[in-house]
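for the writeup, i need someone to sanity check this before i put it in the appendix. the sequnce is what the collaborator sent (i think, or maybe the updated version? ugh). structure was predicted straight from it, no edits. if anything looks off just tell me and ill rerun, i have time this weekend
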Amino acid sequence: MSTPAPSRALTPVRGLAAVVGFLVCVEVASGVLQGYYTPIYPQIAEHLSIAEGDINWFEAAQLIVSALCVPLLARLGDLVGHKWVLLLSTLVTALGSWGLALAPGFSTFLLAWALQGAYVVWLPIEVAIIYRRTAGTGRQSLLTRRAAAILVGALELSVIVAALTSGLLVERLSMSTLLMLPAIVVTACLALIWWGIEDTPGQSTGGIDWHGLGLLTLALGLVMAGLVLVRLDGADSVPAWLLVLAGLAMLVPFARLESRLPEPLVDVRLLATPGQWPVQLTAFLFGMSVLGAQIPLSTFAQSDPEVAGYGLGASSAFVSTLIGVYVLCMAAGALGLPLTARLCGPRGALVLSALLVALGYALWLVLHDTTAQGLVNMAIIGIGSGGLVAALPATAAAAAPPERTGFATGMTNATKTIGGAIASAVFAIALTATGSLEGPDAGRAPFSGYLTVWAVCAGAALLAAVALLALPRQVAADVGGSALPETPAGV
């Protein structure tokens, strides 16, 4: 009598190609979150009975959560293992996504949108998983770069597909049903991560800098609370500006604490070096446009000029096309960075990318009457943004010691996110016509608010170009043309 073959237990797939395949699914979900909502922002505002300008508060809240959770979850991954942090962040993102579909009003929708910001840590954690998985191969850096390029490619493609999908479905489905689709995609990722990613223990020792995290949270919270009061009470509100100043003042004890710790949440001494501060300042200024301006661009494009007196009168489907052009141009800017670096020098390529972003938003100030003008403006912005997205992490890594490269590259994402959060709050104030934060009366944003958005984005990009001129030539030369595209978060 033959012995029955033992049943195979479900075990994590161990082949690198299979692991990358599972992580591609996670990046597809990330692309859905980044591309799906942008074409339907005006419809979301109508669904919640809020003014279009107040949609920016959703983005501001999410970006603040993202900025705080990146260093925390990255550190937690080093301590307990990256798979569990990926699972935790996906679970929180899924809860936030379902909350958006089921939210009865503005406040609950705002909370759910903020929780969804946990997805921002996915790509750094995925790269860390691949880096650990390829240890001992003799080609660890090469395999990690190739795998990361596959992940970014899947992300960019899914952003375009998601934007096209929501633009086509918005007139066919109820808003609750429409918002359930991203939640289903994210929830499916939980099972894929659980089964497909092997569990490797964390290698780091020590703990988490809770005191630093608390001070940073307090500083950002005070600044955002002050901006909310400006929204409610007006720009002449003294308490509002006192809160903003108090938040900025909290950065002083935060910096002093971090400079004394052996394992700080934020290595302020490294950030103050000549090779780091121009890059991190550029990331902050760049975040104002790449993350903060997406909602205003969507609402402006869909505004009817015969009703509002401005806008392109575009449909959600056209906004999806606009996003597709923008993302494709970002990819072109990133892939063309090596050629630009050879022609203009590595530092010159960075400066040129920032100047293109400044030019694109400056053109919005004078060319905003037709869809053709909008496409040209966004194409220029996309090419410049792609160059910055590709080069900033690599430049930060080149200016950091080997044991701090992960921190340096992660900080470009964190500072970019903080810049986007502050810009989103400022833009919400500029675009608010009437009403309170909880339930504003129906009203369209003033055209002057859109001019403010474009002027701030153009000015910030121009300041970034100036800051990059202070970057030491040797740091930029070390990057050369080998920069790897990073996630185009917020496209």
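The two ends are 63 Å apart (CA to CA). The longest helix spans residues 140-169.
thx in advance!!
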